[in-house]
Design a protein that fits this description.
single chain, 169 residues, mainly alpha, 83% helix
Length: 169
C-alpha cells in the first residue's frame, strides 16, 4: 500500500548518536509531504481527466462505428441504385431498339406497298391513256369519213315533211 502524506508526516525515526539534524529532516519531510500531496492531487485530476476522455473516446468510437456502418449502407445503396439504373437503361435501350426496328419495318412495308400502288396506278394510267387515245382517234376517224353526208341524207329522208324546216328546202 502506497504511503499517504499523513504516513510521511507521522513517521518517527529512532534517534541515534550520530543522527541527522531533526529540524532539517522535518523540513525535508514537510517538503516531501507537500510534493507528495501535489502529486496525489495531480494523479486524481489526471485519472478524472482520463476517465472523462475515455468516455468521450467511447462516445466518438460509437459515432465512428455508426458512421462507418452508414457509409457502408450508403455505398451499398448507391451501388444498387447504379446497378438498377444500368439495368433500366439497358431495358430502355432494348425497348427503343425494338420500337425502332418495328417502325423501320413498318415504314419499309408501307414504302413497298406505296411503290406497288404507284406502279399499278402508272399501269392503269397508261391503259387509260391508250384507251382514251384509241377512242379519240376512232372518233376523229369517224368525223373524217364521208359517211356523215350520207347519214344526213338518210336522216332527212326519214323526217316527215311537216317537221322539216325551211333550211332543208
Amino acid at each position: 500500500m502506497p504511503l499517504t502524506p499523513l504516513d510521511i508526516h507521522n513517521k518517527a525515526f529512532t534517534k541515534s548518536f550520530r543522527g541527522y539534524d531533526e529540524d532539517e529532516v522535518n523540513d525535508f519531510l514537510d517538503q516531501v509531504i507537500k510534493d507528495y500531496e501535489a502529486m496525489i492531487r495531480e494523479k486524481k485530476e489526471l485519472e478524472s481527466k482520463v476517465s472523462e476522455l475515455e468516455e468521450k473516446l467511447g462516445h466518438f468510437s460509437d459515432i465512428e462505428s455508426t458512421l462507418n456502418k452508414s457509409i457502408l449502407v450508403a455505398q451499398e445503396t448507391a451501388e444498387e441504385v447504379k446497378q438498377n439504373a444500368q439495368k433500366e437503361g439497358r431495358l430502355i435501350v432494348k425497348e427503343a431498339e425494338k420500337n425502332a426496328d418495328r417502325i423501320i419495318n413498318e415504314s419499309l412495308e408501307k414504302s413497298r406497298k406505296i411503290a406497288i400502288d404507284m406502279d399499278e396506278m402508272k399501269k392503269q394510267a397508261n391503259v387509260f391513256r391508250t384507251r382514251f387515245k384509241t377512242l379519240v382517234e376512232a372518233q376523229l376517224e369517224m368525223l373524217n369519213k364521208d359517211d356523215w353526208d350520207d347519214l344526213n341524207k338518210v336522216l332527212e329522208d326519214q323526217i316527215p315533211e311537216e317537221y322539216q324546216t325551211a333550211d332543208s328546202e
